[in-house]
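haha ok so turns out i had the wrong file open the whole time. this is the CORRECT one, sorry everyone. sequence first:
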Amino acid sequence: MPKYLFCGGPQRWGHKTFGGLLEDFYMENDFIISDYALIPQDTFTYISDAHNTTSWIDHFVSSFSVHQAMFNMDVLTECIISDHRAVAVSIQCSHLPEFDDEVMEPQPSQID
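then structure:
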């Protein structure tokens, strides 16, 4: 079973087309939006000083095996290096299944 972890902030996450494509991709490949499961729902990862707003736009998306090994995820609100806040997560690597030495070739994808 492949082990994947994607981290970052899809800037257009909520956009009808792009956000929908990402959500479809995650669902079709059995990925989990791990931060939704591991961080309280009133969390924010982005602060706009210009508009005095906050939002949650940075995410951790993982395969089931990686998600099961994650713990202690938290937004580091005191770590201010940009308008995005750092997110820290601990991963218990010994809980991950053995790595499969078989290399998977990337497959081309199509977007209709």
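The longest strand covers residues 70-80.
again sry for the mixup
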